[in-house]
């Protein structure tokens, strides 16, 4: 961290001047503990006719059971098929679980890929990495999140960031590995803007959006001129690449904090109460609603973490015994809030004419074991699971790939995480053969060779 001091006369107890004080990195006096996000510029890899495409990635942290939700096996033995029955949908070729009745009503608007699999370890954070970056962390190379690549290549449209995560970054996964929700080798400038708040709370505010109460507008404007102090004090530092990034981050953070449009985008009280209730007055539902507002206001990529950790929280992680979730907990708590929030988001985007330009993808780190375990739950299973896609050029009502009779392995059209990443990039108009400036300045492909978009979806 660099510390710069001006010629102010007021001195603190440790001898530092109070006026014109800036700590590069934290920017704490301005309330700019934004860890990321801003020095993004487009580099020409995006097709012009897709430049307005956006993406909402719903990451189903904990990993839903494909056999109990989207890829049911009603003719399999009881220990495979589980306790739930399939129901018909608006798509005559698709049946899904009875615990997702709202999904059934919009099944003509989303498509499922039932043959996703990966070879990573059956631990949460390994799957988080692979599904959000297309690669497993290896050799010290931390691949950026797909949204970070979008931030790097396109930059932001407005004062709002290009890439945001709601409600906050993932917590622990048990493997002590990077979770994939960062800028990786592209740098912290392309980390996501993390909301770090629960939008379902009555007193919801965005911690990083506004300056501290004690800093009035005149003081805030004066602190904006702190860059002059840096110019005067460290000319050699200012000539460096790091300082150029600092300047961009500072100006962008200031724009975000003082932008009426940014405050408006995050203000859920602007929504009619019946709209908020349609999404569900819970954290996930209100994050879905907020994601729609952010997309409307120029954010290019939003990731929604349905849950924050697999510990001490009811999630999709249905091992069946405490401290994890039971199948009953999934049925009575997790599935209803998810069913409501997701269906509301798809319907709302469609009614507002935004679905065609907004890809909504539903991902998870893996699936669940083909057989129910002795505790009545299902364990981790990366060998086969289901992901969903809607909007962004995806044709609704399609089923791509198939699993074997017990949902254990792909039986047709195997799909890997890199193929999922390629599909998202393709929807957004990227050349999937494009190379990024990787570690050491070496070209680093957006998607590894041998992988391609799931063209059957489009």
UniProtKB/TrEMBL annotation:
Domain of life according to the entry: Bacteria
PROSITE patterns (UniProt xref): TAT
Pfam family membership, one: DUF1501
Stretch forming the signal peptide: none
InterPro entries membership: Alkaline_phosphatase_core_sf, DUF1501, TAT_signal
Record PANTHER family: BLL7424 PROTEIN, DUF1501 DOMAIN-CONTAINING PROTEIN
Name used for this protein in its record: DUF1501 domain-containing protein
Native source species: Blastopirellula marina
């Amino acid at each position: 961290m660099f510390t710069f001091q001006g010629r102010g006369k007021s001195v603190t107890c440790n001898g530092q001047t109070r006026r014109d004080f800036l700590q590069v990195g934290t920017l704490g006096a301005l309330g700019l503990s934004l860890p990321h996000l801003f020095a993004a510029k487009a580099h020409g890899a995006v097709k012009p006719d897709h430049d307005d495409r956006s993406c909402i990635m719903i990451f189903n942290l904990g990993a839903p059971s494909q056999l109990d939700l989207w890829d049911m096996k009603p003719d399999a033995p009881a220990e495979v098929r589980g306790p739930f029955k399939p129901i018909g949908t608006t798509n005559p070729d698709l049946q899904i679980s009875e615990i997702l009745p709202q999904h059934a009503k919009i099944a003509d608007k989303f498509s499922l890929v039932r043959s996703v699999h990966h070879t990573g370890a059956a631990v949460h954070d390994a799957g988080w990495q692979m599904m959000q970056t297309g690669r497993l962390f290896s050799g010290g190379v931390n691949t950026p999140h797909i949204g970070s690549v979008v931030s790097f290549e396109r930059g932001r449209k407005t004062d709002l960031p290009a890439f945001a995560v709601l409600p906050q970054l993932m917590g622990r996964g048990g493997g002590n590995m990077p979770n994939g929700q960062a800028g990786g080798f592209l740098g912290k400038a392309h980390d996501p803007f993390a909301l770090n708040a629960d939008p379902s709370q009555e007193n919801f505010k965005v911690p990083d959006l506004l300056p501290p109460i004690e800093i009035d507008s005149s003081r805030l404007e004066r602190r904006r001129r702190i860059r002059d102090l840096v110019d005067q004090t460290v000319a050699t530092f200012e000539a460096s690449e790091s300082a150029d990034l600092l300047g961009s981050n500072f100006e962008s953070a200031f724009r975000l904090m003082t932008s009426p449009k940014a405050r408006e985008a995050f203000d859920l009280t602007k929504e009619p109460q019946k709209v908020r209730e349609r999404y569900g007055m819970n954290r996930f539902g209100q994050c879905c609603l907020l994601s729609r507002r952010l997309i409307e206001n120029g954010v290019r990529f939003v990731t929604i973490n349905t849950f924050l950790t697999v510990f001490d929280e009811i999630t999709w992680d249905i091992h069946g015994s405490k401290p994890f979730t039971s199948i009953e907990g999934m049925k009575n708590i997790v599935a209803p809030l998810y069913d409501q929030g997701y269906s509301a988001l798809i319907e709302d985007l469609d009614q507002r004419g935004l679905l065609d330009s907004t890809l909504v993808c539903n991902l998870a780190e893996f699936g669940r074991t083909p057989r129910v375990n002795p505790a009545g739950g299902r364990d981790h299973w990366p060998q086969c699971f289901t992901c969903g896609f809607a909007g962004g050029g995806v044709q609704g009502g399609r089923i791509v790939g198939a699993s074997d009779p017990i949902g254990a392995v792909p039986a047709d059209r195997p799909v890997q995480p890199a193929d999922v990443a390629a599909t998202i990039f393709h929807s957004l108009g990227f050349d999937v053969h494009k190379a990024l400036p990787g570690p050491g300045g070496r070209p680093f492909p957006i998607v590894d060779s041998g992988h391609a978009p799931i063209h059957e979806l489009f």
